[in-house]
Fold this sequence. Notes:
The chain has a four-stranded antiparallel sheet, covered by helices on one side. Strands 5-6 form a two-stranded antiparallel sheet. It is about 20% helix and about 45% strand. The longest helix is centred in the last third of the chain and has 16 residues, at about 70-85. The protein is globular. It has one domain (about 5-85): Arylsulfatase, C-terminal domain (2-Layer Sandwich). It is of the alpha+beta class. The protein has one helix and six strands.
Amino acid sequence: MDKDLDLKVVRLRRLEGDYKIKAFVDISISGFVVRGLRVISGKNGLFLGMPQEKAKDGKWYNAFYPLTREARQDLAQIVLGAYQE
Length: 85
């Protein structure tokens, strides 16, 4: 990820109970806010789910996503790190 990018978690709302979704997260990226990321518990541990929108065809599509594997890993590391604090 571009090291000049100012990326941080601005809101993290944990969910109580036995749900697959463990938290909803909002992040800021260089002055812009992206809402609706999710911390999800899967069979291989926690992972980061991107914000999604339901299209007219009834399917869900990511509304925001990293372009590279490195960017996805950096984003997940920051968000999951904030969740585990």
